[in-house]
Amino acid sequence: MSQKWEYGQIYVSQPEMFGGMPKGGFDLSKVNKAGQEGWELVSVVPFTHTHGVVKGFFMIFKRELSE
């Protein structure tokens, strides 16, 4: 039997300029809730505008579909 997955995302807008964590840290309440619901983080994808300016990023999650 093959596994089937569903995917979800959380978008984080305007991360700290010049890299690094924001001074106040990320609000991880949505990430913690996703973990409690069985979601697993599989990738982080930056969202950039022209000239490479990062406007935010997408956190991509997956979890196995229950039959």
Shape category: flat
Number of spatially distinct domains: 1
Strand content: 35-45%
Helix content: 10-25%
Quaternary organisation: single chain
What's the story with the biggest beta sheet?
3 strands, antiparallel
What is the number of strand segments?
A: 3
Would you kindly provide a written description of the structure presented here, covering whatever features stand out?
The longest helix has 8 residues. The chain has one domain. Strand 2 and strand 3 form a beta hairpin. It is mostly beta strands and 67 residues long. 1% of the residues are buried. The chain is built from one helix and three strands; from the N terminus they run βαββ.
Summarize the structure.
With 67 residues, the protein is mainly beta.
Strand and helix layout:
Blueprint: E1 5-13, H1 29-36, E2 40-48, E3 54-64
Antiparallel strand pairs: 1-3, 2-3
Which features does this protein show?
67 residues, 3-stranded antiparallel β-sheet
